[in-house]
Structures are given as structure tokens and as C-alpha cells.
Amino acid sequence: MEDIEKIIKHTNTKNQEKVDWTKAWSKKYPVLATYKDEVDVEKYAKEIRKLLESLQQEYQYTKLNSMLVLKDILYQEWKNQKRK
Asked: pLDDT digit of tens for each residue in the chain (84 aa)?
């Protein structure tokens, strides 16, 4: 875990933007390479935009902070559902 934490700490935004994260993660999770052909992405994107905008307005978060908070909420919910 320490190696991962060091990489995160020393990675800047410019480097992050160079990586195609969907492609990278699809090697481990193949659904990430195919879902766009199967899922009504715009339907879910619209709802996600509403949630992001709500976080920005209600808590005066930046766009980035709103995304990070929403992402963490999604992860926590996933983790809680796995336990059931």
C-alpha cells in the first residue's frame, strides 16, 4: 500500500490527464471497454450532472471537489452493499 500512496502523492494533474483511465482499468475490468455500446450513458450522465451540481450549490464545492465527494459516496455505498 505504501507504494500506491507514494505514486498518488507524486502524481500531478498534468500526468493524470495523459492516462486513458478507462483503457487502463478495462484490462482488469473488461466491462469498461464495452459498456458504452450497451448502456444509455446519457441517461446516467444526466443524473450524475444533477448530483454534481447539487453538491456544488449546497456546499459551495468546486467542480473537482464535487466529483471527488460523489465518487467517494459511490464507493462507500458499493462497499456497504458488498457486505450485505
From this structure: 888 788 778 788 777 788 888 999 999 999 999 999 999 999 999 999 999 999 999 999 999 999 999 999 999 999 999 887
Q: What is the pTM of this model?
A: 0.77
Burial profile 30-66: b = 16 or more Cβ within 10 angstroms, e = fewer: eeeeeeeeeeeeeeeeeeeeeebeebbeeeebeeeeb
In the chain, the N- to C-terminal Cα span, in Å, equals 26
